[in-house]
Amino acid sequence: MEELSRQLKQKDEELDQELDDVIQADEEELDHQLDDIDRDIETTRKDLREGLRQRVEAVKKGIKDRKDDLRQRVEAAKKAPKDRARKEAENALNRMQEDLSKEDLESAHIHRWVASQWLKASK
Questions:
Q1: 1-to-4, 50, 77 alpha-carbon distances in Å
Q2: What does R_g of the chain's alpha carbons equal in angstroms?
């Protein structure tokens, strides 16, 4: 009986050792897998940060481009009436010169007045 008890105890110790070895190997494998997962997470975080940074930069650039476009359109809109007024004044002065060459003083005077009004509007 003592021999059987001793053998049983020895077998129990061997099984405990095998179990410890398996657990140790599993823990090492698990540690390795966790390290891989940590690296993957960090890489993903970096990629996400970079992607977000690029998107933010793209949005900022888009906003800047739209603002610039709107500024140009506003300036063009402000300038358009003045340009039209100058063009109308120039046309009236040309008609005045034609009237003077035809010796039509009445029409020339009217065209000079029209040109004067357009010049006031262009300022």
A1: 5, 72, 110
A2: 46
